[in-house]
Amino acid sequence: MPIAVKSFFHKQSATFTYLVSCLDTHSAILIDPPADFDAPSATLTFTTANQIIDYVSAHKLTLEWILETHAHADHITAASYIKQQLKTEHPCKLGTGKGITQVQAYFSHLYHLDMPCDGSPFDELFNDGERFKFGNTHFDIVSTPGHTPDSVSYLIEGNLFVGDTFFMPDSGTARCDFPGGSAKELYASLQKVLALPDKTIMWMCHDYQPYGRELANKTTVQEQRLTNVHLQQSEHAYIETREKRDATLSSPQLLHPAIQMNIRAGQLPHPTQSFLTIPLTVLL
């Protein structure tokens, strides 16, 4: 079935959001929508999310799903906000990988959050190989852990939305030093994706424009297999290189606010209080 892919770029976090629609029915799914967060003032706004909502309305789309590729550490998701804004017109479901329960368990302990670690408030927790309908087509779940335990990619009519698993070929692959991450698991996930047909289109979640090149977000399985700068080596060499590089990386600037909200699909950890926690590391 024919589909359309509309991308939105969130400059603050270098994040791409994708709105995928069925051309026959105008049903749609939304992947990785960001909110806007000003860290110095701790101000959360939804300008970007509202632009997406306006686009959905203007093109008379019916949003059936909002999907997360994982609990992001570099931006706060607008998933719950968008679901709330559209609940009367066309209710939609929130979905993510089943590994979110592991991520919730770790970070709820770290931040002393009193919350269930059963995947809520997500409506659906995805297992590898599952298929879900939207419009006259469907999306398939491709579990891709390694960056995080809950990482999943979404395969729709020859289009794969990969989250942080891959970057553009000149930027390599995702870091694996977050809790539950694994370079060995990521390598297996990368090979799983590279086994898909050569012409499969891969849509990136981020682009940091190395060497000042133009913004890019689309490539193919064949291009990744032949030219990805991190994958022209053996599994052992990849794991060694990945772990060595990860040891030098700084934490994402929005790590603490993003994770606390994203493990709850963008909801505040304390529904009646607008407070987030910052763990303190003291070096003497």
3D structure, described in words:
This protein has one domain: 4-Layer Sandwich (Metallo-beta-lactamase, Chain A). It is globular, with a radius of gyration of 18 Å. The protein is of the alpha/beta class and 284 residues long. Strands 1-2-3-6-7-8 form a 6-stranded mixed sheet, with helices on one face. Helix content is 25%, strand content 23%.
The radius of gyration over CA amounts to 18 Å
Averaging pLDDT over every residue, what do you get? 95
Which second-level CATH architecture applies? Answer: 4-Layer Sandwich
Shape: globular
Contiguous helical run count: 7
Task: Break the fold down into its secondary structure elements and pairings.
Elements: E1 3-10, E2 15-22, E3 27-31, E4 36-38, E5 43-45, H1 47-58, E6 62-67, H2 79-86, E7 93-97, H3 100-110, E8 124-126, E9 131-134, E10 137-143, E11 152-156, E12 159-161, H4 183-194, E13 201-203, E14 218-220, H5 221-227, H6 235-246, H7 255-262
Short description:
With 284 residues, the protein is of the alpha/beta class.
Sum up the structure in keywords:
Metallo-beta-lactamase, Chain A, 7 helices, alpha/beta, six-stranded mixed beta sheet, globular, 284 residues
